[in-house]
Amino acid sequence: MAEKYAVAITFDDNAKTFQAFSELQNAGGVGITAAAIVDRAEDGRFSIPEQTDSKWGAGLASGSIIGMLVGVLGGPLGMLLGWGVGATTGALVDASRMDKGDDAIAAFSELIKPGHNAIIAETEEASTEPLDAFVAQAGGTLIRQPLDEVIDELEAQQAAAEAAAKAAREEMRKQKKQERKEDRDKRFDELKKKLHL
Fold this sequence. Notes:
Blueprint: E1 3-10, H1 14-26, E2 32-40, E3 46-47, H2 57-61, H3 65-74, H4 76-80, H5 95-99, H6 104-111, E4 117-125, H7 129-138, E5 141-146, H8 147-194
Antiparallel strand pairs: 1-4, 1-5, 2-3, 2-4
Helix pairs in contact: 3-8
Region (Disordered): 162-197
Organism: Nakamurella aerolata
Protein name: DUF1269 domain-containing protein
């Protein structure tokens, strides 16, 4: 029975990533169902460069796990989880723990170094050997995480982000209420002075 995975593949040379991506599109039997090249800027931000004639591009447009994963790594949630610019590192979680790859998604972030790129893919593999052999022969590094685990983490992280946003809104509401009370007290004191009370 075929298992579904999320996979990240990196190479020492960014040009090699593009070459391998092209070769993988023509390779049979490696089990890739959706894929994209992901760039990680020097500041840690993730993005998907414009693709040329990728047979897997439709999977991204239709909301594949790859698009969601890149969105988490490169979007506001990724920033909160410490995968982006250092100013937000550790805002919700211990970024040093995340950088050690304790979680499936963090493993992807750890593998893709700033200034480098990677192939992020969704696979359905009866055997992991064909893709492993391709990557080894091409001189790359591959990590594979069960797709269910990645989806579970995406859901958990989304729930955590929503809870953090709710807590932030509540804190802002409390601050505004306190500011209004202070303003009201100040205005009342000024009125008392004017009325000589």
